């Protein structure tokens, strides 16, 4: 580790390196991402940083059981219009 990566570069590298075969994203808790982030950036809050990058469109966050999934924008699953789907099922 000669030169430290920036937040965005670290997170994108983590997504590509830590995702399991057949998956396009990583679970922040189960992949070890949160712990690795805190260790690499000496206690910084991964939630705050990932939320900021998501607001800029540099990564995509999807809530899941036990935490969130992180995706590169080009790999993120489309958000389904759940409200529209519910209305359709209700016949409205």
Descriptive report:
The protein has 92 residues and is an alpha+beta fold. It has a single domain, classed as Arc Repressor Mutant, subunit A (Orthogonal Bundle). It contains 4 helices and 3 strands; from the N terminus they run αβααββα. The protein has a 3-stranded antiparallel sheet, with helices on one face. Strand 2 and strand 3 form a beta hairpin. The longest helix has 12 residues. It is elongated. It starts with 6 loop residues before the first helix and ends with a helix.
Q: Estimate what percentage of residues fall within beta strands.
A: 5-15%
Question: Could you tell me the number of beta strands?
Answer: 3
Q: What about the largest sheet?
A: 3 strands, antiparallel
The amount of helix comes to 40-55%
Structural class label: alpha+beta
Distance between the termini: 57 Å
Integer average pLDDT: 92
Query: What's the CATH class label?
Result: Mainly Alpha
Question: Would you list the SSEs in sequence order as H and E?
Answer: HEHHEEH
Write the CATH architecture name: Orthogonal Bundle
| 3D shape | elongated
Topology, pairings included?
Elements: H1 7-18, E1 25-27, H2 33-40, H3 46-55, E2 60-64, E3 67-71, H4 82-89
Antiparallel strand pairs: 1-3, 2-3
Quick overview:
The chain is of the alpha+beta class. Helix content is about 40%, strand content about 15%.
For the structure shown, list the relevant keywords.
single chain, alpha+beta, 92 residues, Arc Repressor Mutant, subunit A
């Amino acid at each position: 580790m000669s030169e430290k990566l920036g937040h965005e570069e670290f997170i994108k590298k983590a997504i590509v390196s830590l995702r399991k075969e057949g998956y396009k994203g990583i679970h922040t808790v189960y992949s070890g991402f949160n712990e690795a982030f805190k260790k690499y950036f000496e206690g910084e809050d991964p939630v705050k940083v990932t939320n900021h990058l998501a607001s800029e469109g540099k990564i995509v966050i999807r809530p899941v059981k036990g935490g969130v999934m992180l995706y590169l924008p080009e790999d993120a699953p489309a958000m389904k219009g759940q409200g529209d789907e519910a209305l359709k099922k209700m016949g409205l």
